[in-house]
Design a protein that fits this description.
This protein has 360 residues and is α/β, with parallel strands linked by helices. It folds into 3 domains: 43 residues, no CATH class; 209 residues, P-loop containing nucleotide triphosphate hydrolases (Rossmann fold); 70 residues. Helix content is 37%, strand content 23%. Strands 9-8-10-11-5-12-13-14-15 form a 9-stranded mixed β-sheet, sandwiched between helices. Helix 9 packs across helix 10. The longest helix has 29 residues. The radius of gyration is 31 Å and the shape is extended. The termini are far apart. The relative contact order is 0.10.
Length: 360
């Protein structure tokens, strides 16, 4: 039976038998208008749709951050080399959330948290119990541990039902590599995995994913600062936290992504799932300083261009460069390059014997 018909099953009590009811099927033909409405309804179910008011309300209620500047309210990838301490750092986060403490020096929101920790390693449940227990005494905490298989669509559906039924409002997946149903460099495999992860983020549940840094090496042993696997991994999360080794057994933490400029921290691992922040740089401060520096350079270059047009008429490029060096400091060679193909060449030109301002 095609789209143009609908079945309705009714019970005919006059045909009741000992083993149950005999079903009678009645066939109804849809009008063209009803069929068009049914097709439209089917199409609408394929997309997650919000009104502008609904989106604004969700943005106001949920915000961008689970932990301001460090962990996104949607998806965050924590990645680094094997055995560098990623899972310990995640245990530090979980402990801060359920105890109302701090994560890397930043206070977590003061609201009840229930965390689902999904592990893939052998004995991962015991390891996480020990890590969290190194910070929080006792075991009466709102944390549940789930062992994950290689995840297919049906597994994601089942996990979503389990997590929402348990009332978790934060989910950890440790680790990405072992839940994939194919190769890490296959874009389709990565998309299928993140389709499952988005079941949670679209339900308002932040997801923290643990991954590995690439082990590929370039010339002279140089390693790129990117997650292992397909570029789709970085593109599929809203926020990234990279963990690297630093001097003296310390760690460098770099955050970046779509939400903010990020920050760079140097932290010292302490006993158990504890970390001390030694220093930190807000990338927004660096961006602001670079913008200020760029504005100063532009203003200075504009002053130099005006000087050339007002004071250097009839002079060669070499003589003009020498005059600029005497007026503004620096070397004449630098100004010759600037007049020839650098910043000043964008503001002044010399089509004949006279310097002229470039008009756009």
């Amino acid at each position: 039976m095609g789209l143009g018909s609908v079945c309705r099953t009714v019970r005919d009590e006059s045909r009741m038998r000992i083993e149950g009811y005999e079903a009678v099927t009645e066939i109804y033909d849809l009008t063209p208008e009803e069929e068009a409405q049914l097709e439209l309804w089917d199409a609408q179910q394929r997309f997650t749709t919000y009104t502008l008011a609904e989106a604004a309300n969700e943005a106001s209620e949920q915000g961008d951050w689970l932990v301001p500047g460090l962990i996104a309210s949607t998806s965050t990838l924590v990645y680094g080399e094997a055995k560098i301490g990623k899972s310990w750092l995640v245990a530090h986060l979980v402990s801060a959330l359920v105890s109302g403490g701090e994560f890397l020096g930043v206070e977590v929101p003061r609201r009840p948290f229930s965390v689902g920790v999904c592990f893939t390693d052998d004995a991962g449940h015991r390891e996480y119990s020990n890590r969290i227990g190194s910070v929080l005494p006792g075991t009466d905490h709102p944390v549940m541990l789930y062992g994950l298989p290689m995840m297919k669509r049906a597994d994601w559906d089942a996990l979503h039902r389990v997590v929402t039924d348990a009332g978790h409002n934060v989910l950890v997946i440790d680790n990405l590599t072992q839940i994939l149903d194919g190769s890490m460099i296959d874009d389709d495999v990565i998309r299928r995995c993140f389709d499952g992860i988005r079941r949670f983020t679209r339900s308002g549940i932040p997801v923290v994913i643990v991954g590995h840094a690439t082990d590929a090496q370039g010339k002279n042993g140089w390693k790129p600062d990117r997650p292992m696997g397909s570029a789709s991994i970085s593109q599929s999360v809203r926020w990234l936290m990279q963990i690297r080794s630093a001097k003296g057994g310390n760690l460098k933490v770099k955050t970046y992504g779509n939400i903010d400029h990020g920050r760079t921290l140097e932290i010292r691992p302490e006993e158990g799932a504890r970390f001390t922040v030694l220093s930190g740089i807000e990338m927004s401060e660096i961006v602001a300083k670079n913008r200020e520096r760029s504005a100063d350079v532009l203003d200075r270059t504009a002053d130099q261009a005006r000087f050339v047009v007002d004071q250097c008429q009839g002079m060669s490029q070499r003589s003009t460069a020498e005059a600029l060096a005497e007026k503004f400091g620096g070397s004449a060679g630098t100004y010759r390059n600037s007049l020839g193909k650098g910043r000043l060449s964008k503001l002044v030109t010399k089509p004949g014997d006279r310097w002229e301002a470039v008009t756009r």
